């Protein structure tokens, strides 16, 4: 691990100001991805800005028809008190107990790992990501592998999830890491049906054909015969692209049945 400075700011404004001082600063929340990369010398920040304890980033609350979750809420906290059963189940499926008690919602979204579970929940529910300077719709947030719409120094403050009429999540876990080999989040919201897939592509994505079929009939049977092209899907030692394409259909049906 390379040497670095450490700052614990008192508030969001102070954290953002510290990030703008130059060098290679990085925000630190749960550190489940960042610290591992630093130990392997794949990341070499000049300063870590610890935002995990900032009050503005904590808490889970209901605001009318929206569930608002602070960016520093841990996976374990969301599993226990998310208020949306599918989102709680998703959070409780992440990693192991240590990861769930340290990893955070905001860190997961900012990192945008191709197999990240929270991306599926955010995109599947059509959530809004609120930062220190703007609001970003889920459909505009995830741009590619480890790439998001966040500008340099921009900090996620909270995520607003519309409360769904029903929702479900199903995934096949990597037996070692707990990451999604493939995962599907299905939701019926006031804006319509949404289906989001994680673990299968460069980043989370939606399935318009599945959404249209479920809009006509919200049941696993409605998905019969639908397929997913394997051309752009991931392939690795855990699953081929063809197998992931097959899993998406199976998991979508399971997510609908669980909703």
Structural account:
By secondary structure, the protein is α+β, with helices and mostly antiparallel strands. Among the domains are: 1-53, Uridine Diphospho-n-acetylenolpyruvylglucosamine Reductase, domain 2, CATH 3.30.43; 166-258, CO dehydrogenase flavoprotein, C-terminal domain (Enolase-like, domain 1). It is built from ten helices and 14 strands. The strands form four sheets. The protein has a five-stranded antiparallel beta sheet with strand order 4-5-10-6-7. The protein has a four-stranded antiparallel beta sheet with strand order 11-12-13-14, with helices on both faces. Helix 3 (75-81) packs antiparallel against helix 4 (85-92). 42% of the residues are buried.
Helices, strands, pairings?
Blueprint: E1 5-7, H1 12-19, E2 25-28, H2 34-39, E3 47-50, E4 60-63, E5 66-70, H3 75-81, H4 85-92, H5 97-102, H6 105-111, H7 117-125, E6 128-131, E7 135-137, H8 138-141, E8 142-144, E9 147-148, E10 156-162, E11 166-173, E12 180-189, E13 192-198, E14 205-206, H9 208-216, H10 241-258
Parallel strand pairs: 1-3, 2-3
Antiparallel strand pairs: 4-5, 5-10, 6-7, 6-10, 8-9, 11-12, 12-13, 13-14
Helix pairs in contact: 3-4
Largest sheet: 5 strands, antiparallel
DSSP summary: helix tally = 10
CATH top level assignment of the domain at 166-258: Alpha Beta
Strand order of the largest sheet: 4-5-10-6-7
Succession of helices and strands:
EHEHEEEHHHHHEEHEEEEEEEHH
What's the architecture of the domain at 166-258 in CATH terms? 2-Layer Sandwich
What class do helices, strands and sheet pairing give?
A: alpha+beta
> How widely separated are the two ends?
44 Å
**CATH homology superfamily of the domain at 166-258:** CO dehydrogenase flavoprotein, C-terminal domain
- Proportion of beta-strand residues: 25-35%
* CATH third-tier fold name of the domain at 166-258: Enolase-like, domain 1
């Amino acid at each position: 691990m390379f040497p670095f400075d450490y700052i614990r700011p008192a508030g969001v404004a102070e954290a953002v100001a510290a990030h703008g001082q130059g060098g290679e600063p990085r925000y630190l929340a749960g550190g489940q991805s960042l610290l591992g990369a630093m130990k392997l010398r794949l990341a070499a920040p000049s300063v870590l800005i610890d935002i995990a304890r900032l009050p503005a980033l904590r808490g889970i609350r209901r605001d009318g028809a929206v569930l608002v979750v602070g960016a520093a809420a841990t996976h374990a906290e969301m599993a226990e008190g998310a208020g949306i059963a599918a989102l709680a189940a998703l959070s409780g499926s992440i990693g192991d107990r240590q990861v769930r008690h340290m990893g955070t919602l905001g860190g997961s979204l900012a990192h945008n790992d191709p197999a990240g579970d929270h991306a599926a929940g955010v995109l599947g529910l059509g959530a809004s990501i609120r930062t220190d300077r703007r609001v970003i719709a889920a459909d505009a947030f995830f741009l590619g592998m480890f790439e998001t719409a966040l500008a340099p120094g921009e900090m996620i403050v909270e995520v607003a999830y519309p409360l769904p009429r029903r929702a479900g999540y199903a995934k096949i876990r990597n037996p070692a890491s707990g990451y999604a080999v493939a995962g599907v989040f299905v939701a019926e919201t006031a804006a319509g049906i949404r289906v989001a897939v994680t673990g299968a592509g460069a980043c989370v994505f939606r399935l318009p054909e599945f959404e249209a079929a479920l809009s006509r009939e919200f049941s696993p049977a409605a998905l019969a015969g639908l397929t997913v092209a394997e051309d752009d899907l991931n392939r690795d030692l855990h699953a081929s692209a063809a197998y992931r394409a097959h899993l998406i259909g199976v998991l979508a049906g399971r997510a609908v049945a669980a909703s």
